[in-house]
Amino acid sequence: MLQDPSRETGRETDFVEYDLPPSLIAQEPPAERDGGRLLVLGSAGLDDRRVTDLPDLLDPDDLLVLNDSRVMPARCWLDRATGGRVEVLFLEPGPGLVEALVRPSRRLAPGQVLSAEGASVRLIEDLGEGTWRVEALPSPGAVMDRHGHVPLPPYIRRPDRLEDRVRYQTVWADRPGSAAAPTAGLHLSERLLSALAARGVACTRVTLHVGLGTFRPLRPSDLERGELHEEAWTVSEAAAEAVASARARGRRVVAVGTTTARALETATPEGASHPVPGSGRTRLFIRRGYRFRSVDGLLTNFHLPRSSLLHLVAAFAGQERARRAYAHAVDAGYRFYSYGDAMLVL
What we know:
alpha/beta; QueA-like; Thrombin, subunit H; 2 domains; nine-stranded mixed β-sheet; six-stranded antiparallel beta barrel; 17 strands; globular
């Protein structure tokens, strides 16, 4: 459970640490995409519901904002010229030079070429901590198409399977660029989206390509700088107008996932209450003390201790409310992480 703030020892991570039995880490998605449990954290406290209850929990004219980034088959295994396999996890779609995690990184040097049938990756620059700038031939996309695997996170202790190409992807994903899934959106099926539309809940889309800054454990330097590894984002004119209209009419803007919230908050100028259209790369680190500008509600999965994602959830919900919610989720046997259950914070 999240540490009680009254026992704070001076480290920010004390607010986002909890103990989780390994048996609660989901290894498989639910049988049905929208078949998970939903913990609702609202003004009345905690409520155990189902994901399929979402239309009843939202009001007509509420606005759901979705992240339309598509997960790349980013994990590739290639061979050294001297023998031995190396894992290359692409963090960007390309074209051109891209960043990638390369493991194991020992005995690697700039200029080395890793290869597989019909593809190669040349190491260009060591960026530290296992990250390299690389040149992929014929292109990053072609290498991933030929040799890529679904980049399931390491806490899913099994190889990826064919069905993961569907289930570790939202049903609306159409902009390739993520090295990990925006997992809150995995719960929304076509039939649930239809039920939400029938309820009068509107939807719009933004893009944030999930990269190293989202799934890498936080380092002391991240906390000191107050910045994360940069990730690419886009908020279109249509999305910005939809959010501005909802907020002007007093309707709630509900971000589906921490990545969506990060994109919206990145695009919202200080002092404003809605985003402006734009795109770029963000290092925004949302944590304790952050004042949200565009987001009124958050649909999210349960996240790793001390991760930037849990920092964001605790900042949005409030440290003590988040601590109680996670303690309840553990006690009630909710399933955690990417293929796990969800929480709605209103």
